[in-house]
Design brief:
Keywords: FAD, Flavoprotein, Oxidoreductase. The longest helix has 37 residues, at 240-276. Helix 5 (88-102) runs antiparallel to helix 6 (105-117). Strand 2 and strand 3 (162-173) form a beta hairpin. Mean pLDDT is 89; it is low at 393-400. The strands form 2 sheets. Strands 1, 2, 3, 4, 5, 6 and 7 form a 7-stranded mixed β-sheet that branches. The protein has 3 domains: 7-88 and 109-119, Butyryl-Coa Dehydrogenase, subunit A, domain 1, CATH 1.10.540.10; 123-239, Butyryl-CoA Dehydrogenase, subunit A, domain 2 (Beta Barrel); 242-391, Butyryl-CoA Dehydrogenase, subunit A, domain 3 (Up-down Bundle), CATH 1.20.140. By secondary structure, it is of the alpha+beta class. The chain has helices at 7-23, 26-32, 41-49, 69-82, 88-102, 105-117, 131-134, 240-276, 288-313, 319-347, 358-372, 375-386, 391-399, and strands spanning 122-125, 154-159, 162-173, 180-187, 194-200, 208-212, 222-234, 278-279, 282-283.
Length: 400
């Protein structure tokens, strides 16, 4: 493994950081989260055309950059540093790989160029499950989370003119603004039970209700999606469970990279504050106790970033790839939570005020733990995937 970034990767990261420093300052982020979309559509199109952010994972024949998981992780880390409200996660990390993996040639040719240009955004609708459970990172990738029989989750029904969906899902990332919904629905009843992905175009489909939810972290908009006998198109022909499990191996390092980027920036802000905040006639950063706390946080952030790079390098659709990704995500979430908590404490009372940026990073850490955790489940399932607690071996040891 060569941990060094190539010149192109370094250039992409520096270009993206410069753009975000110019167009995604704290004031701009606070203003844009109050808009109906919850993100700056103009900035998203700019990022799609200049560094090609929207099409990083799209094949070149469809107008994308054809990059891999590491490039997506680098982009996510920069977005995490700025707490960028954007469809990066929902579109580039979740929607594009699924369309590429499951879509028919006609569906890929129709959707991928628009997704790569930033013209079209997507959202993954998962009823009754957290994202990490559906991706096989915090539980078995068997599709049981989607509901069963004729009730629960979102049900798909075959008709003479196509498919119809009925049900609802909450906490859909960017679901209120996406022009394309990939809906995981249960079909086949008890006898032929399976989970499939369906394309829903909310601007043209009937009986689609999208409600933006009040979220703890305003920089990550969420929505409730209600479908009432809604027209849908089957994405490809295969089951969704396998494709989602494969996606888990590549999505986990990107989620971890975003969390580690946010932790890194929160630590930088805390160090900057410790250098100028004076107590007893000297900067608080000069006190040994504060130095030790900041040094420990620095080591923790660097360890999380190393785990992210390794997981991105080892990303694969295998159980090992998901295990490595789940461990990196657990470490990044834990690091983000610890750094955000320490940042609030070291800032004192100002750290919890709306006017200060530290509270934004604290809310992101708390929200990510709820959306992508909990950490102990990620680690427990990673241990199961890696076979660390094989039941047969444990019984044999007891007998001996």
């Amino acid at each position: 493994m060569d941990a060094r970034l190539t010149h192109e990767q370094q250039q992409m990261r520096s270009t993206l950081r410069e753009l975000l420093q110019k167009h995604a300052s704290s004031e701009q982020v606070r203003a844009v989260v109050r808009t109906p979309a919850g993100y700056d559509a103009g900035l998203w199109r700019l990022l799609g055309s200049s560094p090609g952010l929207a099409g990083l994972a799209v094949e070149q024949r469809y107008g994308g950059a054809g990059c891999g998981t590491l490039e997506l992780a680098l982009a996510a880390a920069e977005a995490g540093r700025a707490l960028l409200p954007s469809p990066l996660l929902s579109t580039a990390v979740l929607t594009v790989p699924l369309v590429t993996a499951l879509g028919t040639p006609q569906q890929r040719a129709q959707l991928l160029p628009r997704l790569a240009s930033g013209e079209l955004t997507g959202a993954l609708v998962l009823p009754g499950a957290t994202l990490t459970t559906a991706l096989g990172l915090a539980g078995p990738a068997d599709g049981t989370w989607s509901g069963g029989g004729r009730a629960g989750g979102i049900q798909a029904r075959r008709t003479a003119d196509g498919w119809r969906l009925y049900g609802e899902a909450g906490q859909v990332l960017d679901g209120h603004s996406a022009g394309l919904l990939l809906v995981a629905a249960h079909t086949g009843g008890y006898a032929r039970s399976r989970t499939c992905l369906f394309i829903v175009r909310p601007d043209s489909a009937h009986a689609v209700t999208r409600t933006r939810l009040t979220a703890l972290d305003e920089t990550r908009p969420q929505a409730r999606i209600e479908l009432r006998d809604t027209e849908a198109e089957l994405l490809g022909t295969g089951e969704a469970s396998t494709a989602l499990a494969v996606l888990g191996g590549s999505a986990a390092p990107v989620l971890a990279a975003e969390a580690s980027g946010a932790a890194e920036r929160a630590l930088e802000k805390t160090v900057e504050y410790a250098r100028v905040r004076e107590q007893f006639g000297r900067p608080i950063g000069s006190f040994q106790a504060v130095k030790h706390r900041l040094a420990d946080l620095h080591v923790t952030v660097q360890a999380a970033r190393s785990a992210v790079y390794y997981a991105a390098w080892a990303a694969a659709g295998t159980a090992r790839g998901r295990a490595v990704g789940a461990l990196a995500l657990a470490q990044a979430l834990e690091t983000q939570w610890r750094v955000a908590g320490e940042a609030v404490q070291l800032h004192g009372g100002i750290g919890v005020t709306w006017e200060h940026d530290v509270q934004l990073y604290f809310k992101r850490a708390a929200s990510d733990e709820l959306l992508f955790g909990p950490v102990h489940r990620l680690r427990a399932h990673a241990a199961e995937l890696a076979g660390l607690f094989d039941v047969s071996e444990a019984r044999e040891a007891v007998v001996l």
